[in-house]
Specification:
The structure holds two protein chains of two kinds.
Chain A (H helix, E strand, L loop, with lengths): L2 E8 L6 E8 L8 H14 L22 E2 L2 E2 L20 E6 L8 E3 L2 E2 L2 H8 L21 H11 L6 H5 L6 H12 L8 H14 L10 H5 L7 H16 L3
Parallel strand pairs in A: 1-5
Antiparallel strand pairs in A: 1-2, 3-4, 3-5, 6-7
Helix pairs in contact in A: 2-6, 3-5, 5-6, 5-8, 6-8
Chain B lengths: L18 H26 L6 H12 L10 H30 L15 H4 L1 H20 L12 H9 L2 H28 L7 H28 L5
Helix pairs in contact in B: 1-3, 1-7, 1-8, 5-7, 7-8
The chains are: A alpha+beta, B mainly alpha.
Bound molecules: protoporphyrin IX containing FE and FE2/S2 (inorganic) cluster (FES).
The site of protoporphyrin IX containing FE (HEM) has 26 residues of chain B, from helix 1, helix 3, helix 5 and helix 7.
Chain lengths: ~250, ~230
């Protein structure tokens, strides 16, 4: 199949950027989206041009490294699918594709389609963990967890931290990411001791990073490759209000 | 350029300082305004009971709490509460909106809307329209400045006089649709902001928001429609 690409090219954080057009022929419908970009990059290298920089790692939809906005949709048009798991057969022959990086002040652009998502790491460092001695795995049934809580915690823990929620949000808010991190620990017994400090610290860090404010559009949920629900955002708000009212340290 | 992890990140949440806290303020003040909008509608619908009832109701608002409270005092309490609520709502809206506008300095070539609604996307400009409408509304029925034949105390007459002009009625109708859209997304958003989503709430909150918004818009519009149709004269 043939596709026409308009790819955001930007040599560096301070360099001016622009869309560059690439016409591709002989694209196999069975290629993944990233494989298609690999092929294009080989052609660019052969022509002694700079290849397109983009993030990727596992290419099986579990690491959260990949991510780009394809025709106005983070990770492309297919629901519950990362860019690496998207296949060219999703698009019609002759499709025209606009490919751009995540756009947010908190995600400074490094090069082409690569942005620095360190803000999400710093949010997790601010308290997205439980403080325990690690060592050999404890006996799984030592602490009983109600099935409903375990399932919900698992839904939240599906977050791979790709940042598509921020990219999709009209406000560039990171609420879905923070909600997932707060919920997957807050729902489990092991997360209780630090529950209110965790939510306070994560929210403070989220604000400090310069993300926008959630206005409940729900675009994050539609873009999330793991289909994490905005019900978790309500849960985050509830936890935060509760912690604020009770002034627990 | 990027802030480090706050070394002394607050262990106590700062509700009002955080963006979530600002949304909580908007939700609470929004619900206060919503309660007013509903009470105001129920009062206004007394216009269908005729001039005598309607004017008595308007007078009743002023003598509320008599003989314990001086004339008009409770009405002023309500006005102050509403003014504070409106002020806080708009202040929080501005802070939150500025944060969001600043959060994406470089925009997209295209960002497709998938999940959001027209109501959600028009909250900000809708709010501005509501403010303009409220100013006109006060000039029309409270201060009488733009009313074609204002008679202090004859509330029924003032309403009929104003709505007889179809452009006034049409503008009022548009404003009520804007209010309905704002209430629809606002009420659902308030559930979300206040964390009210435990089952079974999570199932009916959108429906309730739609119903409340629809009834408000329809109820308010019924009055100018009745005036233009000659049912109220
Ligand atoms: C009839 C008067 C009004 C009522 C009943 C009302 C009600 C509400 C409610 C309940 C919310 C939800 C808060 C939340 O997001 O959790 C809200 C949000 C909002 N209101 Fe109002 N409001 C009114 C007037 C205004 C005015 C005058 C403005 C002025 C600019 C305004 C601007 C906003 C904005 C920007 C939001 C954020 C909505 C969002 O995207 O979530 N509102 N309103
Ligand atoms: S490369 Fe790992 S999720 Fe796409």
């Amino acid at each position: 199949m043939k596709v026409t690409l308009h790819v955001w090219r930007q040599a560096g954080p301070a360099a001016p950027g622009r869309f560059v057009r690439y016409d591709m022929t002989d694209v196999s419908p069975d290629m993944s989206f990233l494989e298609m970009l690999d092929v294009l990059n080989q052609q660019l290298i052969a022509r002694r041009e700079e290849p397109i920089a983009f993030d990727h790692d596992c290419r099986e939809g579990i690491c959260g490294a990949c991510g780009m906005v394809i025709n106005g949709r983070p990770h492309g048009p297919q629901r519950a699918t990362t860019a690496c798991q998207l296949h060219m057969r999703t698009f019609p022959d002759g499709a025209e594709l606009w490919i751009e990086p995540w756009r947010a002040r908190a995600f400074p652009l490094i090069k082409d389609l690569v942005v620095d998502r360190g803000a999400l790491d710093r949010i997790v460092q601010a308290g997205g963990f439980i403080t325990v001695r690690t060592g050999s795995a404890p006996e799984a049934n030592a602490i009983p967890v109600p099935k409903r809580d375990a399932d919900l915690a698992m839904d939240a823990a599906a977050c791979i931290g790709c940042g598509a929620c921020v990219a999709a949000c009209p406000n560039a808010s990171a609420m879905l990411f923070v909600a997932a991190k707060v919920s997957h620990l807050g729902l489990l017994p092991q997360g209780q001791p630090e529950r209110s400090t965790r939510v306070a610290n994560l929210v403070a860090q989220m604000d400090a990073e310069g993300f926008g404010a959630c206005t409940n559009h729900g675009e994050c949920m539609a873009a999330c490759p793991k289909e994490i629900s905005i019900d978790f955002i309500a849960r985050l708000n509830r936890d935060y209000i509760k912690a604020a009212i009770s002034h627990e340290g | 350029m990027t802030p480090p992890v706050a070394a002394h990140a607050p262990a106590t949440p700062r509700l009002v300082r955080s963006l979530i806290g600002k949304k909580v303020i908007m939700a609470i003040t929004g619900v206060i305004l919503l309660l007013f909008v509903i009470a105001h509608l129920l009062g206004n619908l007394k216009v269908f009971q005729g001039a005598e009832h309607f004017n008595a109701y308007a007078e009743g608002l002023r003598t509320l709490g008599a003989p314990f409270f001086p004339r008009g005092s409770l009405l002023w309490v309500a006005r102050v509460v509403l003014l504070v609520a409106v002020g806080a709502h708009i202040w929080a809206a501005i802070v939150v909106t500025r944060a969001s506008w600043g959060a994406r300095p470089v925009g997209y070539h295209a960002l497709e809307a998938v999940e959001t609604t027209y109501a959600a996307r028009t909250m900000r400009w809708g709010g501005v329209i509501i403010v303009l409408y409220v100013i006109y509304h006060l000039l029309d029925f409270t201060f009488g400045r733009v009313n074609p034949s204002f008679v202090p105390g004859d509330v029924y007459h003032n309403v009929i006089a104003s709505f007889r002009a179809w452009p006034v009625s049409a503008g009022y109708g548009v404003a009520m649709v804007v209010v309905g859209l704002h209430v629809y997304h606002g009420l659902w958003s308030a559930f979300q902001t206040l964390g009210l989503n435990r089952p079974p709430t999570v199932r009916w909150r959108r429906g309730v928001a739609g119903m409340v918004a629809g009834l408000i818009t329809a109820g308010y519009i019924a009055i100018p429609v009745a005036v233009l149709a000659g049912v109220l004269r």
